[in-house]
Structure to design on (295 residues):
């Protein structure tokens, strides 16, 4: 009689399924100088704020299927040809130029996270070029082993497909777009002379010829157009001239010295290593010392 009891243990195993990783931070690469390609930056070393912590249940007595950042999908590129090219290493010593059109979740470049990315500015470009848009994947799918990584710019994949990682809650790819950007620091480009200044007429045997400012003589043939970059640097105006040679067989070249209010000879030993510099508002003139000379 009476109530009798017995005890049995029932064990259950919860089979893990993948939880997609997260990434919280956009990347700004160190600035590079105009006309200089950026050094390659390894994708896995970028501080995207990547986390696959949901797959680690050891703190609750469970198991872990946590994996590090394993792949990056490039799904957008807003740089223009006038700005330059984004490139990603191909794993064989070369570089793949990232297309500026046709990229997206359904047409992404997939590369392993140990690859590098760089920006190669177009000639004379400076400023902030368009950026890359990317998604990050954990290692729950062996895309490299399945031949699902890009070997050139034309090899693209639909990352929403499970075979390519998938973008669902249990997929390999994170849910929020992240970006990679860079800036290009301006470097001065030398100005050019677009022609010869107009000849100044003086009368034969003139003892007090008129002077002309450097700006009026050379302003019309000065160009700094290379330094005009939309969204970047601006051209400089003429600041002055450096005289590197003087011919004195028919007379003397003079400049007006404002400190003494007198005309003084420009040194005849001026050279590239010993230039005589005048500002835009300084005046110069030629005074003939040869009687009856003209020409």
């Amino acid at each position: 009689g009476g109530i009798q009891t017995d005890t049995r243990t029932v064990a259950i195993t919860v089979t893990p399924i993948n939880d997609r990783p997260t990434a919280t931070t956009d990347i700004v690469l160190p600035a590079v100088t105009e006309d200089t390609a950026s050094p390659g930056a390894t994708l896995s070393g970028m501080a995207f704020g990547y986390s696959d912590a949901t797959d680690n249940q050891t703190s609750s007595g469970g198991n872990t299927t946590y994996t590090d950042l394993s792949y990056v999908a490039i799904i957008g590129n807003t740089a223009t040809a006038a700005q330059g090219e984004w490139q990603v290493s191909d794993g064989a010593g070369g570089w793949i130029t990232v297309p500026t059109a046709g990229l997206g979740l359904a047409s992404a470049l997939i590369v392993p996270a140990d690859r590098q990315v760089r920006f190669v500015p177009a000639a004379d470009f400076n400023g902030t070029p368009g950026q890359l848009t990317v998604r990050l994947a954990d290692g729950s799918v062996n895309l490299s082993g399945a031949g699902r990584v890009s070997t050139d710019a034309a090899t693209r994949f639909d990352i929403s497909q499970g075979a390519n990682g998938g973008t669902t809650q249990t997929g390999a790819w994170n849910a929020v777009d992240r970006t990679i950007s860079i800036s290009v620091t301006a470097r001065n480009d030398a100005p050019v002379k677009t022609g010869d200044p107009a000849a100044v007429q003086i009368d034969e045997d003139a003892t007090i010829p008129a002077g002309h400012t450097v700006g009026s003589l050379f302003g019309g043939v000065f160009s700094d157009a290379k330094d005009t970059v939309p969204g970047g640097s601006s051209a400089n105006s003429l600041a002055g001239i450096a005289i590197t040679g003087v011919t004195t067989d028919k007379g003397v070249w003079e400049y007006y010295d404002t400190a003494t209010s007198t005309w003084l000879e420009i040194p005849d030993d001026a050279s590239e290593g010993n230039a005589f510099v005048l500002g835009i508002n300084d005046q110069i003139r030629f005074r003939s010392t040869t009687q009856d000379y003209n020409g």
